[in-house]
UniProtKB/TrEMBL annotation:
Residues 21-352 form the Deubiquitinating enzyme MINDY-3/4 conserved domain. Keywords: Hydrolase, Protease, Thiol protease, Ubl conjugation pathway. It holds the Pfam family MINDY-3_4_CD. GO terms for molecular function: cysteine-type deubiquitinase activity; K48-linked deubiquitinase activity. It is an enzyme of class 3 (hydrolase). Residues 123-146 are annotated as: Disordered. This is Ubiquitin carboxyl-terminal hydrolase MINDY. It comes from Strigamia maritima (European centipede). Belongs to the MINDY deubiquitinase family. FAM188 subfamily. It comes from the Eukaryota. Its EC number is 3.4.19.12. Hydrolase that can remove 'Lys-48'-linked conjugated ubiquitin from proteins. GO terms for biological process: protein K48-linked deubiquitination; proteolysis.
Length: 445
């Protein structure tokens, strides 16, 4: 397979580049879409740790990276004044974020694609397929931005994360140049392995970037957040009519919430709703933004009750909030509860007293977890929201919006106006209310 070729500080071969392009863009790459993705990692003049997105499309890379960057800015270096760091410090946070995302994709070796500070006439190493390639001739005049990218992009294969960090520090001055975002995208795909990305996708013929609108697919978003290129956001794999559909299998560092869940197009599982850090990428129909807080108590470990709900739902792939009585024994086994045949039969009779052949989730929880209470989530905390698009920000300034959040008792319904950002938040906290300091809810589009 193409990703098995070994490169060291060399151009990417024509065969590998073409395979990457098909995976990313599909059979027909539109110049306009490529142009919108051709931007570097640029920090806002008004918010030192906020990345700027110039046009629609690359939020599928920028928003997850922003989430990981905030993890380092806020949580990894003590309570530094993360809103007033130097450009150099912000760049180091970015490099840490990029390195961690690559680490999620591989435990062995890493590929770093980058634009050199100059364009020396490097020759391709160990590639017999490159004899017919004209991409090494630096005298050729690029016919398009895509060919300019193809001609100058370099690739290094390294064995350790320290080397990844070193390369990014060495090339720090070009990360904000025209192809910074695309270089990192190609690094992620090569580190993961082209064939492995395709294996994890439900439809490997679907490009990672929509050819018409330039939006990144859920596969690409999940790959950035978790290192897995699956198409779904639920917990674990589901078997629907004999078809295995992959989901998220572990808790992520940065989470994901989406307006599409409110619209009932999907259900985000516990692993993405409850990440290790209180940082969530927020999905609307067309854009990705980031919501975050400094309160670590928002990310408490999974309770036995939450685990029970998650496991019960794994046997309910259609989301009906009930299971067939014949699955009760399997659920009890998965939860390490008593599951001998005699006991299971007794519980079937009790939980399905009407003989309907089903057991409701609420009935199950009341029987086995009667003391389920509210988790120890803070009732009041400060939320921040990031939107990298200047046109979506007040006065065209990319700054973090700040709001005071309150989580009420779950039987109290929030009476605040249902803005898109609040509606999205309520998929995690149904009774949350947020008073934004600007009196205007931030845009998630």
């Amino acid at each position: 397979m193409a990703e098995k070729h070994v490169y060291k500080d060399a151009p990417i071969s024509a065969s590998v580049f073409n395979e990457l392009n098909r995976l990313v863009w599909g059979p027909n790459l539109k110049e306009d879409v490529f142009r919108r993705w051709s931007q570097g990692f640029v920090f806002s003049e008004d918010e030192p740790t906020a990345l700027v997105q110039f046009e629609g499309g690359p939020c599928a890379i920028i928003a997850p990276l922003q989430g990981f960057l905030l993890k380092y800015a806020i949580f990894k270096y003590g309570d530094v004044n993360w809103r007033f760091v130097s450009t150099y410090e912000a760049s180091l946070f970015l490099i840490h974020a990029m390195t961690e995302i690559l680490q999620q994709c591989s435990s062995k070796s890493y590929y770093v694609a980058y634009m050199p500070t100059s364009t020396p006439d490097l020759k391709l190493a160990d590639d017999d397929e490159s004899s017919g390639s004209s991409y090494n001739n630096q005298d050729d005049i690029p016919k398009s931005e895509e060919e300019n990218f193809r001609t100058n992009l370099r690739l290094a294969r390294v064995e350790g994360l320290e080397e990844v960090d070193s390369i990014y520090r060495t090339t720090m001055n070009v990360l904000d140049q025209q192809f910074g975002v695309l270089s990192f995208l190609y690094s992620v795909l090569l580190t993961k392995g082209i064939s492995q990305v395709k294996n994890e996708m439900e439809d490997p013929n679907e490009p990672l970037i929509d050819g018409t609108y330039g939006h990144g697919s859920q596969c690409l978003i999940n790959l950035m957040l978790t290192g897995k290129a699956c198409s779904n956001v639920w917990d674990n794999d589901k078997d629907i009519s004999g078809l295995k559909l992959r989901g998220i299998s572990t808790q992520s560092s940065v989470g994901f919430l989406t307006l599409l869940e409110h619209l009932r197009y999907c259900e985000v599982g516990w692993f993405l709703k409850c990440p290790e850090y209180p940082i969530w990428v927020i999905g609307s129909e067309t854009h990705l933004t980031v919501l975050f807080a400094k309160e670590r108590g928002l990310c408490s470990p999974e309770t036995p009750e939450a685990a029970a709900r998650r496991i019960f739902k794994s046997y309910d792939p259609e989301g009906n909030n009930f299971i067939s009585t014949i699955l009760l024994g399997d659920v009890l086994c998965a939860l390490d509860l008593v599951a001998d045949a005699e006991y299971v039969e007794v519980m079937k009779q009790k939980l399905d007293s009407e003989g309907l052949g089903i057991i409701l989730l609420n009935t199950f929880m009341e029987e086995f977890y009667p003391d389920e209470g509210r988790s120890a989530v803070p009732e009041k905390f400060i939320l921040y929201h990031y939107n990298g698009l200047k046109r979506s920000c007040p006065n065209g300034k990319v700054k973090f919006a700040e709001g005071n959040a309150t989580i009420y008792e779950e039987d109290l319904k929030c009476v605040a106006d249902a803005t898109p950002v609040l509606t999205c938040l309520q998929t995690k906290w149904p009774s949350i209310e947020v008073n934004w300091s600007s009196d205007v809810a931030p845009s998630i589009i």
